Target: Acyl-CoA synthetase
Amino acid sequence: MRIPVVDTLPAAFQRTAAIAPGAVALRTPGDGVTLTWGDYANRVRAVAAGLAGLGVRRGDTVALMMSNRVEFYPLEVGAQHLGATAFSVYNTLAPAQLAHVLGNAGARVAICEPKYAAALAAAGTGLEHIVCVDEAPEGALSVSDLLAAASDDFDFETTWRSVRPDDVATLIYTSGTTGAPKGVETTHAALLFQVAGIAEVLGIEFGDTITSFMPTAHIADRLTALYVQEVLGTQVTCVGDATQIAAALVDLRPTVWGAVPRVWEKLAAAIEFRVAGEPDETRRTAMRWALSVAAARSEFLLAGEPVPAEVAAEWTRADELVLSGIRAALGLDRVRWALSGAAPIPPRTLGFFAGLGVPIAEIWGMSELACICSVSHPRDAKLGTVGKLLPGMESRRGEDGELHVRGPLVMKGYRGMPDRTAEAVDADGWLHTGDIVDIDTEGYLTVVDRKKEMIINAAGKNISPTNVENAIKAATPLIGAIAVIGDGRPYNTALIVLDAESVEPYARTHGLPDASPAALAIDPTVVSAIEAGVAQGNTALSRVEQVKRFRILPTFWEAGSDEVTLTLKLKRRIIAEKYAAEIAELYAPAIEPSAPSAG
Model:
């Protein structure tokens, strides 16, 4: 679609809000809360006036700390209209992390839910005002107080028109697999280039529907549910509890949708569990047949080969009888295309949904590139690749295979860290991404792994742990996380953590009385199932990549824990240190097993 020429987010929002003022822009599941574009625009004007009355000016920083809710949007967009840098804080940050982020950002005002007010006040970073949605505790302002601070002579039009394309629109704090999070400065110009690029490739229309359920501090949610909305006019359904996303999908039936790989894996696992647990034998047989047909179709799609006519015909019949009903039950029957990003998605998962009739485009990007740098429309995609670079971006590969990228998406820098910025972006403007990639003759990118995470085993072989982990995770829904060990070792081993959402139905189906991770980690039935999954995953790997021994840990790894970042990336160094004893046992005695075994 053709994107209107605007140079800032406020200019984009003002244009979009005027298209259909009576249309619903924001809602919650079941329409418990709705906000039209006209009311949205009025609230943005009021918030901007109120923040100006509190002393917020162009270039100041405003922090937001809340769940996914309708009230977030006018507050964020109102700050943008002052030329302020508005950014979100992860709600689960520890006190020291919260203090670091607020201090580095130089936040003057924080807007939050009441339960976070005390933590913000205790951060000791010199916040001038804390504004609370809902009821404000003592010492904080309410949103009504904020709005009442507006001056009668505030010039809204002149103020938002004074915002410049190179002003910093937001800060995205990296998830911090090593060291303290860095604040990525992203300008209005970069975000507008980003939205225009993905709209050109994917096609997004006014009124398209999508959800906001990932943390608003994550660039993926900010892009797809905030910036895309401001520029293109999508309708966003706010899901305050991410565990309720399955029900929200059925309520909304989105036209475009995206999620991180783990969510796609959980949806696939839910379908498989549902089929296995179907009490009616006739229905269960029909569902298994349809999924087998879908799997046959996906094999050709994954291989990049034409689907034979007889397979296509059988899939059409399976779709009419069963698969369309499964899509409807998921709430994905209206989806034109879907996205997966933030981490590599197992090819089996891509193939599962392709066979089901849900086209997923895998994307690649990073916070330092405003989110998405490469993507292809599903009709043009090669499954297993992350598409092609957005128009207007350049790429090259370093001698070690690292991808370097240059163009309008590259960040302005890391806030307050000029030395770290210079390490990431060279003098010629090339961002050194840290990702090892392959690029085929048609320009499709395949991500191998993070440069710093590549394993070099005792024989000097280079191995991608992510590739190994994805192959094994795809073999069984019981695995929630897996960390492959093997650097400098004679063979690969793995620490495996069970999936918190899959174990309960598994335990119930198999008559296991205790679904705690400690009990399941040593249960012979579970150990046998994981052993079979590892063996199956190993069949997709070369001998040197295969996992020879593993340990099931008696715990779950939650987002933001010692082992996993808020964006579900493994903290490999911390894992290696914390589980040093378990890892040592996996290599004692140092005799390579002939088949995968539990350590």
